[in-house]
Every structure is written in structure tokens, then in C-alpha cells.
Amino acid sequence: MDFKSTMENITINSTQKKEQYKELLPQIESLISTENNFVANIANITAALKSTFSYYSWVGFYLMENNELVLGPFQGNIACTRIAFGKGVCGTSAKEKKTIIVPDVHKFPGHIFCDGNSKSEIVIPILYNNKVYGVLDVDSYEFNSFDEIDMVYLEQLVSLIIQKHKDTIFR
Ligand code: SME
Question: What global pTM score does this model have?
């Protein structure tokens, strides 16, 4: 049978995370360029991230709704569905409008444990025109998993999402 797959695949050849992010981002840009549905795009982005980075234990989006962060597309174990604005790492990132890197989650006051094995975390706010639309949250089962490299490239990734959907979702 003549079968042609239209499924897009992500191909990563590097082993260093900086190089992996540099390979991944243009592929994500291309992946979302052909689809205008926001949820479909951020769902695929979580899959692309989780399959690229073995140190990610959980990756997903929380989206602002009535002053709460509500669980969106993710990859990983079942997670908390609602986080109050200003609470936990996610709520704090949303409130302070800045990326937060937590090398040891046990040392972050008010950290919310959705998965008791989680040890470090990074949260990137989704900001457009100084308004918070949600966060991108990544967890790891190792301490100190996230650094400036994750921050720089995940912030670039969030910018790609905002650019793509700024006329429909972020306005
Ligand atoms: N640890 C987060 C909660 C979300 S889960 O990690 C998926 C927090 O403190 O906000």
C-alpha cells in the first residue's frame, strides 16, 4: 500500500542541552507554523520537550483563569489542577512576572508538591504587554537540573508561542 505519513517528527542529534535547545526551537517553530489552534500547539510542544530532554520528569502549561492557574496540556504524571495566583513556584512566577529557577524544591517556601519525587523546577511566565496569561512549568527528579541555559531557551520558546497566537489568545 502506498502510505505517506504526514506526522511531523522532531530530530535531535546533539547531546549537550544548549545544542539540543538550539536544534529543537526551529523545529517547534515549524511545527506550530501550520496549525492555528493554541491548545493543539502547546500540547505538541510539551511532547516535543519531554521527548527531547531526559532530565524533565514533568512539563506542562498552567493557564490563567479567574485569578487562578488551571492545568493545561502537559506530559508526565497527573498533576494539581488549580494553583492560586501567588502560591507555589508557578503562582509566584505568575505574580512576580519572572522566571524562577528552584535548584531544590524542598527549600522553596510554599512549593506545591504535585509529585513527591520532584527535586528541582523551572517556571517561565507567559507575558504579553505586561499581562500574565499562564506559565510553562518543568520539573525534574534530580536536584539542580535547571540553569541559565534552560531559562534562555524556554523564554525564547514562550516568545515563539506568544508571537504565533498574539492576535487570538494574547490580546
Ligand atoms: N510545583 C509547582 C506545582 C505544579 S507541579 O510541579 C506540576 C508549584 O509549586 O507551583
Answer: 0.94
CA 53: distance to chain centroid? Answer: 12
Q: Whose CA is nearest to atom 6 of ligand 1?
A: 114
Q: Is residue 5 one of the residues assigned to a domain?
A: no
pLDDT tens for 75-95 read 999 999 999 999 999 999 999
CATH number of the domain where residue 67 is located: 3.30.450.40
Residues in contact with ligand 1 (CB, 6 Å cut-off): 58, 79-80, 83, 88-91, 111-112, 114, 118, 121, 137, 139
For the record, the C-alpha cell of 109 comes out as 517556601
- Give me the number of domains the chain comprises: 1
64 lies in which domain range?
Answer: 17-165
Separation in Å, CA 72 to CA 46, 86, 109: 10, 18, 24
